[in-house]
Specification:
Length: 180
């Protein structure tokens, strides 16, 4: 499996590069990464952008099938997908919002992410789907004590521990590095 990151809408260049990899190394399975470049620092891509990417995926996949090359989808934008006025951003340990990471417990984010992912798969029909490895609160909410400290996460943590902690209390506990 080799990953081909799609940073532009130039399908022929991608196809040629993948064919080269097959000829030189015998690789026949590729993960095409969509969407990619630039979104994290701007906004969550629109549904229409996912649809446009899926159509390009279909074009690439169809052409590469002629060479016996299988294509799956690497969804690069998960939690660190960019900001949206519709979604709650993660709250870092210092109480500030992350610049580009949506809280995975936010219902609006879950809906947008699920709909975009489902729509891409519906159109593109990749042979597999691989999700970016940053689908975690520790990778997206950077700081001294990575994670999301929003009310939804604090409530979920309280259910697991049977004790309600504030963000400040958790940071204090982490600083002490106690058995709690």
């Amino acid at each position: 499996l080799l990953v081909a990151i799609i940073a532009s809408f130039i399908a022929n260049e991608v196809i040629d590069a993948i064919r080269f990899q097959k000829e030189k190394y015998g690789i026949t399975r590729f993960a095409l990464a969509f969407p990619s470049t630039g979104w994290r620092m701007t906004k969550i891509p629109t549904l229409s952008h996912y649809e446009k990417m899926a159509e390009m995926f279909v074009e690439i996949k169809k052409e590469l099938l002629k060479d016996g090359i299988d294509c799956g989808w690497w969804n690069q934008l998960t939690v660190k997908s960019g900001a949206s006025e519709k979604c709650r951003r993660m709250i870092m340990s210092d109480g500030t919002e992350t610049p580009f990471a949506s809280c995975p417990l936010d219902p609006a984010f879950q809906k947008m992410f699920s709909e975009a992912t489902a729509r891409f798969v519906e159109i593109a029909k990749p042979s597999f789907v691989f999700f970016e490895d940053d689908y975690s609160v520790s990778a997206a909410a950077r700081g001294r004590w990575n994670g999301c400290y929003c009310n939804r996460h604090l409530e979920a943590f309280a259910k697991k521990t049977a004790k309600r902690f504030t963000r400040e209390e958790l940071v204090e506990i982490f600083e002490k590095q106690t058995p709690e």
